[in-house]
Every structure is written in structure tokens, then in C-alpha cells.
User: Fold these one by one.
Assistant:
Number 1:
Amino acid sequence: MRSDVSLYDLSAPPSLDAALAILAKEPGKYTPIAGGTELMVALGVGRLVQHSLISIQHLRELRFIRVDDKAIHIGAGTTFTDIRRSQAIAEDLPLLIQSASWTGSIANQNRGTLGGNICNASPAADTPPALLAYGATVRLISASGTRTMPYSDFHLGYKKTVLRPDELLHSISVPRDFSDYRQYIRKVGTRNAQSISKIALAAIAKLEGDTIADIRLGAASLTDRPVRCSATEAALQRQRIDGANLDATVRAARAALATEAKPIDDIRSTAKYRAAVAANLLEEFLRSL
């Protein structure tokens, strides 16, 4: 049943400070809406339980891409189309470009925002694996101040994050440290476009000869939240990938990933399938090195 829009109210404050003041005055009352690509679907089928919305889509303070010597800083209101058109992101963070291109249709990419993709907190979201592999940090803002943390600490569980009711995600910062890393990202879904992930893996690795000097892995649909596979990373540090040792390294990687993988059965896939395919993707990346 479609929602009765007369039961909803929408505030559109003129500035970021005004939006934060509204959230601070009545914490928990308002749900932010930017592109609306998730919330409007819920509204259309009568499942939008939040009845007070605060629009942040028009706030220019949240829509930017800034580059300095150390990092690329992306405002939470930056759209996927903005990301896809950024030459700086394409040069330094190609996995983020690829994941942005997976997110729905062109219309969705014109409306949907990076911040919305993160704060919606779906374990199957497209951009988190790349951001996790790149070691991104997030900046959270409220009327009382700001705080910054590793993005890997942002998600607490299924649809749960560290965001307080009076906070907004302000921006995401990604280091520019990966020019000498091998980079890989794969998404497995029911079809080639406009598909929700059954499993996705982003991986980057730095080699010293035939030894893995550093490796970082981010995954979607592997647990109840987007996750960085730190135990698997640890198991692969200083492992050899030359012909005589590659098979042993692959076996160690698959065994370590099995200890971290906690997928579920749902309408799109089974836990067994997800775990097996995640291990296959990791092996594909390692053998590509």
C-alpha cells in the first residue's frame, strides 16, 4: 500500500548550520534525506516509518571533491555521477569509480549520494568495499562539534552505525597512497547491471618482489555489515606468491577468510554460496598478482 504523504513533514533548512540546529533541538525526530533513492522507494510501498524528514540534498557545504597532497576529501552529498566524472578520483582511486558505476541506474547515480550509500548501512552497499580497502576515514558533524574516525569503525551491525541522532556524515577522506598497489574489485550479482550484490570484494596489495608487503581487503554481503577482512589481511602479510609458494598462500587465504565470513541466507543467495564465491574472488586476486 502506498504511503499517505499527508502524514509526513519535510524541513529544508537553508544551510548546514541550520540543519544541525534542527537535529540538535529534537534529536531522533528527523531523518535526513539527500538523494532519496532508498527512502522514496520505502515511501512508495508504504514502509517509510520515519514521518519527519530533513532535506540536506541542496546543501552545497556537503557536496564537494577536494584534493590535497595526502588525500581526496569527498563531501557526503557528492553524487555518484560527481564521483564518476572526477579525474582526480579516477587517477588515484579507480576502485571507487568502478563501484560508483555499479550503483543503480544513471538516474540513481545522478541523485544518490556517497553519504547516503554509507549511512543507509546496507551490508550489500556498493561503495563500502572500496572505501574499506583504501583505509578511508569519515568526519561526523553536529552542532556541538566534529569527530573523525576510521571508516572501518563506522558500521556496528545490520543497519546500525555510530551516528548519533544529532549528527550528520560530513565527508569521507581517502589517502592518496596507492599508486604502487595492485588493485582489484569484483561484484557478483544476479545480472550485470542494477543488481544488489550477492558478494563483492575490493582488494589492493603492494608487492616486494614475490612477497606481499601489504594487503587490504573490503567486502560486501560477507557479514551483517560492510567489513574489512583484517584477519585475512594478517594471514597474508609477507606471504610469497611465486610459483612454488602460491598454492600455499591461496590455501592460507581461503582458510583465514572462512573464519571471518558470516554471510546469511536470503532471497538473493545462500550463505554457503556467498562464502565460496568470496574465497574464489580472493583467490582470483592473489593469482592475478
Note: The domain at 182-288 is CATH 3.30.390.50 (Enolase-like; domain 1).
Number 2:
Amino acid sequence: MTNRATITLDDDAYAFLEASAGDNRSAYINKLLKEEKQRVLANQILKANQEEASDHAYQEQLMDWDVTLSDGLD
């Protein structure tokens, strides 16, 4: 599914888009937005991992459960 959007760009941004996008501005903007979405997601994951690593109570619980990793395995 695709959607149409009307956006307003300043002169510098429009000139950059024209110079960079080639024949398909929509594809170029879609690519940029998908890359930004991935960057935001990666930052969110990093932040969540940092919060998890700094949660000492949670880390202690993980260590308690680590002993069960090989339960039932030969």
C-alpha cells in the first residue's frame, strides 16, 4: 500500500533532494525514512540494553536463573 503526502521543503533541502534523488524522489525519501526508522530502533534497543545492564536487581535474577540453562541436558 502506498500513501501520498504533500511536504514543504526549504530551498536548500529541495536543491539537495533534486541533486541526490535522481529520477525518483519518492523512492529516495522512502529510503531515507526507512534508514532513519532503523537508526531510531537501534537507539531504542541500545537504550533498553543499557537500562537492563544497569538494573542490578534484574542482573541478580538473571544470574539465579543461569544455573537452569543446562537442566535436563546431557
Note: Helices lie at 11-21, 25-54, 56-66.
Number 3:
Amino acid sequence: MAKKEPKIKQFGFFNVNKPSGIVSSTVVNKLKWLTGAPCGHMGTLDPLASGVLPVGVGNATRLFDYFLDKEKEYVAEFTFGVDSDTLDSTGTLVYGGHVPSEKEIETVLPTFFGDIMQVPPKYSAKNVNGKRGYDLARAGIEFELPPKKVHIYGMELLGRVENKEDTFQIKIRCGGGTYIRSLARDIAEALGTKAVMSALNRTQSGRFLLPDAVDFSVLEKDPSIEELESLIIPTETVLPFDCLSVTEAQTQKLLNGQRVTATQEDGLYKLFVEGQFYGVAEVEKGLAKAKIKLC
């Protein structure tokens, strides 16, 4: 059976503004249908959450591992004096506990800066003996998740949400893998109370920014292939590496799978061939090799 050709010829990334109320896979599946090409998102957003959802199309999906640990920014709403089995407002809510003042919250936030150990929510995609955490939790099975190290670059209290005496808005800059729901739980615990995440908007994921994102409603209108291609962000513009400079002779060796000498420091680089983006190269101990081919 002949391989089905994608409708789209240009590969790269879509920066989609996911609305609250849908799962991330809804965005991915829509783009798969529109482009006819493999697609995948970088860092899922909970159904409650909205904001930046980068989606790779075509061979750009091979690069996800290079983006997952990049810095992210969120604006979250934490509601105090309430607990939940899911750690957010979509779960079973149990009220009790005091609502802290803005000054109390501002005082405790810096204690979470830097590397911290965080226990993921049980209602998460974490794997437990081959089962997803949310499946076990929904089945009422007791289990524990080990803490993991995450990095918090900083947090800023933006203030109390209008007409909500118990809810505060906090801007959070963190590394990949951070659970904002767990932050709500842990910040409240440090204040001697309970809290859930009641809203979340991701405003940045690495080099993908919310002001540049296309609303999902645009995709729901089934844009033409030309319109879709105009929305694609070329891979080389968002890949967070410097360029590798090689001679013409070295380029041919690299393309043949050989290593060539390099003066650059050890690390990953964007590799261009005859002015065209080719893929990712790796330098190690003064030698470079082509690591991932994208063209």
C-alpha cells in the first residue's frame, strides 16, 4: 500500500493558543487532519489550562526532547481554603482552612525558588507500574508517587482576583516538568492551609510566546493549506542552538556519517548544508557528527 503523502509540504511548528475546556490531543488531532502529516505537542496542558501549546508537524516531531526542559511561564489562579483530589477546581472540592493575606503569600513564595523536590499529582499521566496515575486514582487504587526535582526561576504575586476574596493570581517561571497544581498544594501547606489551582494560562514555552500564538478557533474554521503553511514556524528559528560552521569538504563527510574536527565547545548545534537547514549536529571532544537529519 502506497504511503499517503501529507497535504502540507512545509514542516516546523504551530504555536497554538489552546482554550480551556479541551484536552491537548484535540489540538493535535485537528492539525493531523488539516495537514495530513504526523503531529505532536510539546508539553501537555490540562483541560482546565489555556495558552501556549507548541505542536510539531512532520519531521519536527523528532526534536521534542530538545525542547522539554526549556523555561516556561504561567499565570495561575490559586484558590485558598479548599482542597481537591485532583489538586485543581475540577475535582471533588472539600472546603476548610484559612485564606492567607497577600503579604503572607509574598513572604512564602521565595522559599520555593531554585531546585525543589515536588510530588506530582496522583491525577496525572505519571506511569505507575505500567498504569497511568489518573487511571489508578479514578479506580480508587491507593498508590504513592515519588518526588521529582523541578526548578522554579521565580514567582510574582499579581494580586487578588476581582470579586474573589479567596483567589490570587501568581506569575510563575519554571523549568519543564513542573506541576503547577502541586505548587498550589505546597504553597498552601507552607501557609498552614489548603489550596487548589482554579485557572491556568501558559504564556511562554521556550521560544514560543502567547502573543504570537494562533487561536484554536482559527484551526476550527478549516483554513486552506496555504493559510496553514503561513502559520508554520520554521524549525531553525526556534531550535535553541547555535549554528555549526563547517567547510564544504567537512559537510560531505558529515553527510556520510563521518566525524570531522570542530573548534566549537561540546554541545548540540544547528547544521546547515549549502545554506539550507539540515538538522542537528553534536560536537564532542573536538569532533562533530550529524545527529538528526530533518531535510
Note: Residues 203 and 210 are 5 Å apart (CA to CA).
